[in-house]
Amino acid sequence: MFDLKKNIKAETVDKAIKHLAENPDAKLIAGGTDVLIKLRQGKSEYCELVDIHDIDELKFIRIDDDKSIVIGSGMVFSKIIESDIIKKHIPMLCEAAESLGGPQVRNMATIGGNICNGVTSADSASSLFTLNAILILKGEDGTREIPISDFYLGPGRVDLKKCEVLTAFKITHDNYQGYFGHYYKYAMRDAMDIATIGCAVCLKTKNGILKDYRIAYGVAGPVPMRCRETEKTVINKKVSKDLLDEIAKTVEKDVNPRTSWRASREFRINIIKELSKRATKKALKRAGEKF
Amino acid sequence: MTSHGFREITFSINGKEKKLHIDVRKSLLEVLREQLGLTSVKQGCAVGECGACSVLVDDVLIDSCIFLAVWAHGKKVRTVEGEAKNRKLSKVQQAYVDEGAVQCGFCTPGFIMATTSFVEKHKGEKKTREEIRKDHAGNLCRCTGYQNILKAVEKCINSDLVK
Amino acid sequence: MAVGKLVNRVDAVAKVTGRAEYTDDFYRPDMLVAKYFRSSIAHGRVKEINVEKARKLPGVEAIFTYEQVPRIKFATAGHPFSMDPDHKDVADRLLLTRNIRFMGDEIAIVVAEDEIVANKALKLIEVSYEEYKPLIHPDDILKQGAREIHQGSSNIVGEHRYECGGKVDDALKGADYVIKGEYVTPMVQHCHIENHISFAYMDDLDRIVIVSSTQIPHIARRIVGEALDIPLSRVRVIKPFMGGGFGNKQDVVLEPMVAFLTLKLDGRAVQINLSREECMTGTRTRHPFHVQVKTGFLKDGTMVARKMDVLSVTGGYASHGHSVAAAGGSKSSFLYPRMAIEYHARTIYANIPVAGAMRAYGSPQVIYALECATEDAARFIGMDPIEFRLKNIVRQGDVAQVTGKEILSCGLSQCLLKGKELIHWDRKKKEYEKYKTGPVRRGLGVACFSYASGTYPVCVEVAGVRLVLNQDGTVHVQVGATEIGQGSDTVVAQMVAETLGFPFENVRVVQAQDTDVSPFDTGAYASRQAYVVSNAVFRAATSLREKILDYACLMTGEKHGKFDIVEENIVSADSGKFVLTMKELAVDSFYHKERGGQLTSEVSHKTTTNAPVFGCTFVDVLVDIPLCKVKINKIVNVHDSGVILNPVQAGGQVHGGVSMGIGAALSEELLIDPETGYIFNNNLLDYKVPTFIDLPEINHEFVETFEPTSGYGNKSLGEPPVITPPPAIRNAVLDATGVSINTLPMSPHKLFALFKKNGLMDPKGKADV
To answer: In the prediction, which pLDDT does B162 show?
Structure first.
């Protein structure tokens, strides 16, 4: 039994916002795979909940007229994996979704929750970073949009204002069309595990030249992060084995992993470097590059 | 009633409509075990790490320990108690028996629900061992090394292919 | 004929339909729940405890602290009572304690109407400690003047030394080479999916009924009596279906407390259902071992001497104490019996979770060290590791050095040859020569083991069986041997059917051991049951068979020896002709007004032999050096467990053991903060039990020998499969990379450190992985 004081069911996003306004201590619960565990651990800040589990308007994946792909925050990971739109246009997001937990968790956990809990190991985050995903947030004063990279404020802290609900993720056409990517999760187990390091690469090539390159990590710092210096260094360079080594070398300067009982900084850096090569190589292969 | 306390929910459990007065603080696991006596639903970790409490909600496999009972309202819930019909085991149950996939049996009901959802979802499809492993990775078993469970799942998949 | 046949488990249908009832399934709405108040420090003493606020919380029924429990120290190990005063388990535990010996030690207990109230009450308990520095590393524990974790113990629980097969120091002098090695195994946990759970109530004014997930109902009954100072006949222990134990439930963890609580609460039902987190650190673990091995051998590969020095860490309480290190030494000694062996072991206390019995009881630790050392010796002289082992291993007719008994059945060399073939040793050895450089390497490894069938002559080995012929001509069987998921009920039914000549389906083993009803047997441990029960079953079934045939004579007026039992009928022994059905005979025996009576047979038998068993693991690995990961391409276990009673169930035992062995080899370890004694990963997310996707296909094979001391030729099998995967994988990683990993588990973190040290982590990197 969960030590819940209040569990207020919201039928719509607007009602959820209203309930949040009326219950200033309440937190949102969607899939429940994080919140209920925290509640069981005795974290009393989760004892008042606004329940958005069954809000249908958050459960969709569509392509808008401007060809943006929009993913409702209430989409569970298994539905993302099965989505024809995602499979066709952003297969790396399927890889990220598939790497998360086990089947049951993927059937319950939502992409919105994965981002809003603010943890650096969130499997979907690094892919969304490389896709320049935009978050759509709805609050009492209407809707606002911010890039995912601005959403993370610190470990466990995100820019979700009072009475706000993250409603969707938008990936604009210019951020997926012509891009090839790969998500590589490194963990101690191949399922039911949190990433020791998660690495997402998304790139575009033309005539053997790296026209655009984006690389992002989970657990390489306090929050998910892009490696901007590395990206700047390698864009417009020729695709080669040496380039992979250069990426691995440069990426070390971008990241700042910490030592914890789960893994040492040194070990994580080793994996960060190695994954940069492997994820990039896979993405390049998908882009049809031979080298 | 929308806040704390009790709520009335209506749902289908193993094919039968049920109306229940439930404490909103309870997990589906607790309601199934304590109010309906469906004790096949086992608790092994209470945090979604072992899969022993797996049930199907609208034919989707979930961990009932981290699923609020109120969320079952209006849905169709299946547990292993409903799988054998007319004193005959389901195909999945029979395969577990025949392949020696059962030892202590504590993870078995959850595993059978995982396999049931897997074979129903992929009926008629050929599935690799890797796909079977991946789609059963949310259920832990400490007795079998999963070896005979794999055989049981393969048997179910293959029997569908023959038909 | 049912032995050796493919028959399904007798309880499989109950389990797949969810009808099998486990301890938590006996739900009683009026049942109270109890929760321990555990220490938040690893070493110290409670200065003051105040439970008044907690007691006032509505819904709290009672709170007990260390002040309110009996001042009776008791031992928790699930061993039979020993009549030898020198061989008693260490009684170092009270129901609740003021002296804190590990983080999570039990100081007080709250009884409440539900879990939420109990948890809230725990938060209201105020406690202050006098803190001592946690003693975690052996050097600190054994340092002169170190604080005694248990007063008067010098922090040593037990110590012994033996020498056999000659003088080891002389033999070492005569060796061409002597190599030394040090090997360390970590604290691992059983992780049975059903946590520890017990409840108790009183069924009259002074009788306590305990329902518990235990491997040892009869032993639990005795220990509850000892801990509470009440006659054991006033205690009844019922073991329903249980969700695994692996040794962790061969210990009395919750039973004395639930019995105490129901006594105090006027017989109300009280349940303790440990959370996973509590179960992982508050019950038992596997003893971490530090082992030093010195091996002396000749140029031709003959091993002549082995000296082992073992340090076993038992944690905050003795539990199984020194028995684990002692058993590890003696059961492994059958393996290479033609050399001088010295074995010295000490077991020490530490401020870490309590270690107890775990699958194969000391052997995984000792054999890991021994088979790493054997590999190192073979490599030292450049000899093929299989050849080296074949030269030195035990053969049928060898005399076991520790017991002086002849080894009557041994198929180890056939096991090695079979495994060699199954892994394609020669072909792959050649093929993998080109994978000894670069980022991805491949290698092969082997390790072998010996183990025992039970605990004799260290402990009594007694098994009880009762057979009853039912009115419908079927037979009911009651056994004390405890079904914990390993399938003992099924093989008992097979044995009964085999000897009676009945169809397997007509033999029903009564599920659930109940100390009021079940014949005496000490329980499920030491891979003893099928071996020890076999002689009891054989005698009981033979006796019932004779009674049935005699009764047939009585009914028909024929002479003794005229009849036989075939399936459900009595037939003529000569012609095989039908005489009467078993049902007709049974009905007559029950209801004839002048003759007969219920036909039954009961045997309690003590086994005074102990058959060694043998086997090996072969493994083919791929090592991804930059990622520091080991992938198992193929793993094969080959066992000599005598006659295989049930091939599918036996295979299942091997699969489970191998999977646990792979976990121990590559990923499993309870991580301790060396400063505070805190356990970082007491849950199934952070403690890396292999999931479905983490395990390779597990292959197994049996070399069937016939063990003459057993009722049906069978020997032990339950625990042994867990023993050799870790050393075999270590040897394969060594083969692949040239790096010896002498500390388990071979996790990526450890591989990273060692690969780096050995210059394998190429700083330039290679892109073509």
So the answer is: 62
What's the CATH architecture for B6-82?
Roll (3.10)
What average pLDDT does range B44-70 have in this prediction? 98
Mean of the per-residue pLDDT values of chain A: 97
This model of the complex carries an ipTM of 0.97
Residue C654 predicted with pLDDT over 90: yes
The highest-level CATH class for domain C27-134+190-282 is alpha beta
C134-141: average pLDDT: 97
Looking at chain A, the whole-number percentage of residues with pLDDT higher than 90 is 98
Tokens of B4: 């704390």
Going from the N-terminus, what domains does chain A have, and what CATH number goes with each? 6-51 (3.30.43), 57-175 (3.30.465.10), 180-286 (3.30.390.50)
**A70 forms bridges with which residues in the sheet?**
A62, A170
Top-level class of domain C456-606: alpha beta
Is A278 close to C667, i.e. CB distance below 8 A? no
C neighbours by CB contacts (3+ pairs under 8 Å) = A, B
Contact C187, C672 (CB under 8 A): yes
CATH 3.40.50.300 fits domain B91-162: no
User: Closest Cα partner for C41 from C178, C152, C133?
Assistant: C133
A 176-195 near C (Cβ less than 8 A): 186, 188-194
Put simply, the answer to whether B106 touches C191 (Cβ < 8 Å) is: no
* Best of C15, C189, C700 to mutate (most B CBs within 10 Å, chain B): C15
pLDDT at C28: 84
Residue with tokens 């305990």: C210
Q: What's residue B161's pLDDT?
A: 77
Neighbours of C674 (CB within 10 A): 12
CA distance C98 to C106: 8
Which tens digit of pLDDT belongs to each residue from C385-428?
999 999 999 999 999 998 899 999 999 999 999 999 999 999 99
The CATH topology of domain C289-455+609-757 is Aldehyde Oxidoreductase; domain 4 (3.30.365)
Q: Which phi-psi region, left, alpha or beta, contains residue C573 (left: φ > 0; alpha: ψ -120 to 50)?
A: alpha
Q: Which chains touch A (3 or more CB pairs under 8 A)?
A: B, C
Q: How far is B10 from chain C (nearest CA, A)?
A: 23
C714 near C644, Cβ under 8 Å? yes
| Mean pLDDT along residues C547-563 | 95
The alpha-carbon gap from A97 to the nearest alpha carbon of chain C, in Å, equals: 16
